[in-house]
From TrEMBL:
It comes from the Eukaryota. The keyword 4Fe-4S does not apply. Gene3D superfamilies: Isopropylmalate Dehydrogenase. One of its GO terms (molecular function) is homoisocitrate dehydrogenase activity. GO terms for cellular component: mitochondrion. Belongs to the isocitrate and isopropylmalate dehydrogenases family. Keywords: Magnesium. Pfam families: Iso_dh (PF00180). This is Putative LYS12-homo-isocitrate dehydrogenase. GO terms for biological process: isocitrate metabolic process; lysine biosynthetic process; tricarboxylic acid cycle. Residues 9-367 form the Isopropylmalate dehydrogenase-like domain.
Length: 373
């Protein structure tokens, strides 16, 4: 279904702050990538500033065009007001709901051959995106000894099973990407492919217990259905309590391949992992459903550096490559990953967050040059 001459329509939402600088950079990189499909970029309104102007952070027209006309999307970054603003709700949260993007997939990748080699890692965190404590069901009561606050944490078999299946599919896709990339390049060489389930079922035996058994059952049913040689037969299943997961992540980060986690643990461990690779400015993600994908850098709108041509465009550029990878174009995606790795390794066109002196535009230009070299 993916002919070479097909035009890919991508909805582009730069939204706020540095999103307006880094998303256009990612767009130009996509356009300059040899072997990439043809693109049609459709600019779409979203974000806090749009809310301030119009009263809507995510116009219905944006959602309609995404659903009816786009093959995929890219999101820049959204400012989150520090105080509650009447009538405002995050466009990202709403987009995930509207488009049923139930997984947030975050590769955290170091680059071999830099001074950080010792802490090198290349892992993908697959974070459940719809439930856990994020259903935001909290209560506050007056008890006999002062106030009592409670939060409900929801874990369902349905959501846990589908995130489990997604994690195994990510592990399979990575295995194939590894073969394409060859030794020593861009993709972790952990062998065999491995999925680590992150939980805390020694304490939360009911909720985390259900998460754990749901993910495991995807693997076990696959094995049984095919008499031991199922789709996931080449993948090792591992598990780790979230506390020891954090400890190992900092001590021996290279042991992890794919990690699957409930929403809150996924949030925390992926920010921790991001710290290991030097800057939020290099960490990408894709919001994934079953058939629609939206690339999004992990960082926020960085108001402290917005509008100064200082932001690191790598997170956005890697997110664009990740989007291509998930939309079924691994070859041009790999070219972008390699070009970014080359520029980081060379160290001459890095922005201030990576202790360089280059501007956003200079970093972008170096990546485009590396792509076509
Ligand atoms: P928001 O509320 O939009 O999340 P924030 O103040 O939390 O805004 P973040 O974007 O989350 O800001 O960034 C946290 C820190 O990391 C800031 O100091 C920011 O300058 C820096 N940072 C984030 N992204 C980048 C980037 N792409 N390049 C350089 N620095 C970045
Ligand atoms: Mg932030």
């Amino acid at each position: 279904a993916r002919g070479a001459n097909r035009v890919l329509k991508l909805g582009m939402m730069p939204a706020d702050g540095i999103g307006r600088e880094v998303l256009p950079a990612a767009q130009r990189v996509l356009q300059a990538t040899p072997g990439a499909p043809q693109f049609q970029f459709i600019p779409l309104a979203a974000g806090f500033e749009h809310f301030q102007k119009t009263g809507s952070a995510l116009p219905e027209e944006t959602v309609r065009i995404l659903k009816e006309e786009c093959d995929g999307a890219m999101f820049g970054s959204v400012s989150s007001p520090s105080h509650k603003v009447e009538g405002y709700s995050s466009p990202i949260v709403k987009l995930r709901k509207e488009l049923d993007l139930y997984a947030n997939i975050r590769p955290v990748v170091g680059v071999r051959g830099t001074k950080d080699d010792e802490k090198w890692l290349d892992t993908v965190i697959v974070r459940e995106n719809t439930e856990c404590l994020y259903i935001k069901s909290e209560t506050l009561e007056q008890g006999p000894h002062g106030q009592v606050a409670r939060a409900i944490r929801q874990i369902t078999e349905k959501a846990s099973t589908r995130i489990g299946r997604k994690a195994f599919e990510v592990a399979l896709a990575r295995q194939q990407l590894r073969e394409k990339a060859g030794q020593g390049n861009a993709v972790n060489q952990v062998q065999p492919a491995k999925v680590t389930v992150c939980h805390k079922s020694n304490v939360l035996s009911v909720t985390d217990g259900l998460f754990r058994t749901s993910v495991r059952s995807v693997f076990e049913k696959d094995a049984i259905s095919a008499g031991g040689a199922g789709r996931y037969a080449g993948i090792a299943l591992d598990e780790q309590l979230v506390d020891s997961m954090v400890y190992r992540l900092f001590r021996e980060p290279h042991v992890f391949d794919v990690v699957v986690a409930p929403n809150l643990y996924g949030d925390i461990i992926s920010d921790g992992a991001a710290a290991l690779v030097g800057s939020l400015g290099v960490v990408s993600s894709v919001n994934a459903g079953d058939s629609f994908f939206m690339g999004e850098p992990v960082h926020g709108s960085a108001p402290d550096i917005a509008g100064q041509n200082k932001a690191n465009p790598i997170a956005s550029i890697r997110s664009a490559a990740l989007l291509l990878e998930y939309m079924g174009y691994p070859d041009p995606a790999l070219r972008i990953y390699k070009a970014v790795d080359d520029v980081i390794r060379e160290g001459k066109a890095l922005t201030p967050d990576l202790r360089g002196v280059a501007t956003t535009s200079e970093c972008e230009a170096a990546i485009i040059k590396a792509l076509t070299a």
